[in-house]
Amino acid sequence: MGFIGALVSVCKAMPVLERLVCSLADAVREAKAKSRYEAKLDHIDSALDAFILPDGGVEQRRDADQAPTVPPSGTGRT
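Above: the chain sequence. Below: its structure as tokens.
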């Protein structure tokens, strides 16, 4: 505990060192967050890979290219 107290008192005496220590702590925190984020993305990618079709294609409805079955609307008025 003595080392940490001495470090804190030196950092308070010299603001430049305090900013350096804070920036190092922020960099470490950001690196950890980025690694967690990448791990989550890898997990999502592996979960999606489990549900991809074996031939790598995408299923499409057979009637997707046909004309709509809705009758034309409106009455002709003069």
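The mean pLDDT is 78.
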